[in-house]
Amino acid sequence: MLCLGSATLYSCKKYLDVTPENVGTIDYAFRNRNEAENYLFTCYNTLQGMSNVLNDPGFTTSAEIVYPNDLSERPINDIGFQLIRGTVQNVSSPALNVWDGGYFQAIRRCNIMLENIDKPIDLSEGEKAQWIAETKFLKAYYHFSLAKMYGPIPIYRVNQPVTAPIEEIRVKRQPVDSVFDYAVQLLDEAIPNLPTQIGNIQQELGRVTRLIALSVKAEILATQASPLFNGNPDYARFKNKDGQALFSQTADPAKWQRAAAACKAAIDEAAGLNMKLYTFIPPANLPAVNDSIRKVLTIQNAVTEKWDLNAELIWALNPTFGYQSYCIPRLTTKAVENSTAAAGSFTVPMFTTDLFYSDNGVPINEDKVWDYAHRFELRTGDNANRYYVKSGYTTIKNNFSREPRYYANIGFDGGVWFGNGVTDQNNPLYIEAKGPDSKAGPKDRVRINMLAIWPKKLVSYQTVFNEGVQQNAYRLPRMRLADLYLLYAECLNEASGPGPEVYQYIDLVRQRAGLKGVVESWAQYSFAPAKPTTKDGLREIIHRERRIELCFEAKAGWDLRRWKEMLTVLATPIQGWSIFQKTSENFYSLQTLFIPAMTVRDYFWPLSDGALSNNPNLVQTLYW
């Protein structure tokens, strides 16, 4: 009891500390304000666990980053990365299974919180209203997270008593629209009583605010309006055992209007808080940087900046992103000598790099003046490009004349790397990746990047991997303003087609990246100058803008699903460079690592055999 009491007192001082499961009784857990708050933090526990990107299909199944499965030593749990190979998912033991236990247990905790919130005698009415709102948000988010993975799911409005008849406990799946509507209902109930801002940033950052809830509501409604859920003929046969249809077969355009309104409400809330797109301002200890490097750091730091210093960050989760060592190449001789410094093994396929525009702000294969046909020819870095490509280093034309987001996101052979302890803009570090003798080249079966391309954006410029390690920790954004702007543009275009407001919010993101407006760029440089003026053309542009701007941020895996574009994108071979070759001519020969093997069944997760056995009223996910 003394230990438990000490832990309870200490928990208020830690970032969303939680109580171990199954400790004490319900009455004890709600005997006073402090104990009840500790139980509230336990309701947050599953949410914080979502911050591990290895368990997030949005990160591992987009193929923005791949991790090889043929290494003799794999120090991380890589099953999420292997899903796109089509070999690990099954019904006996589903990969990344959150149905059996996980998220439904979290919903049960939320219900317990709501059922017992009146018990603490020293809880003020204001705090009580806020805690109820936080709990309803969490309950909504857990239902939404399950629906993204499994489609139709049971809805747990209240916990059933243990004495309930067995048929009441054996609930069935509910139609996807019912699930989304219930999640939105919970958010609407929660939003009025959530705080506008977190007052005590040191102790409570991460607790839900009104803006977070408004942004999640927009995300839920946009997901509900998207083709995967809104009139999807692929799931016409997905029904409960009593014949109840679980997917509507008629697309409802009004869903996009609801989603657009929700996006605008969140944007207005952010504006009221003086939030804006992040711009890098050099700290006092950093020498002056030129415009080229400043643009790169602006794009990188929109993700890696500390939460309290980032005016764009709406929501992130604890703990911090734990895989910078997998995203950084070895840049120095000392890093090579330190066998534990950086594995650098998260690798980026060529088709991900191809997403990024030319410096004219249009796709490289659409640009009238960019030499797409000869992009793999050798070219040596020169003085004009020295802030992006090492001067005098032989690379390929593909790495020249690209938009700033390319240089902020992609680490490539010959690419400049500002940071890792070197902030001299005139003599920065750069990547040497040709062959095993190069610094970033393959060293063993752990320190190897199978395509010689790195996800640079996920490494803070202040992080250092040399003979020692100094990581500048950050929390990967769950939602930031650029995401919300592009989501609003998407919803507006789907609801009513191209228009000034659609262009406005796309262009805000593009301008921060140093590009001209979408209409101007296509009119001036693209082979398809009218593309942004049509609904279909602008849809394609917006989807690409999201994939570029939010690259590596655990968004694309979900976006590609809701757009029903996953199978098309993942039909592309995973290719990169011939990493064991030492000469430029041989190194820059495309190799295929593997070809993804995804089918329509992979849009949703299967239920385990055990789940179906325990509850005969459940139906298996269609196609499994």
Automatic annotation (TrEMBL):
Chief subcellular site? membrane
Where does it reside?
Answer: Cell outer membrane
- Does Signal count among this protein's keywords? yes
This protein's GO cellular component annotations are:
cell outer membrane
Which spans of this chain does the record mark as coiled coil?
none
Origin: domain of life: Bacteria
Annotated SusD-like N-terminal domain residues? 78-203
Domain RagB/SusD: start-end pairs: 339-624
Instruction: Write out the entry's keywords from A to Z.
Output: Cell outer membrane, Membrane, Signal
SUPFAM superfamilies (alphabetical): TPR-like (SSF48452)
The family line of this record is:
Belongs to the SusD family.
What is this protein identified as? RagB/SusD family nutrient uptake outer membrane protein
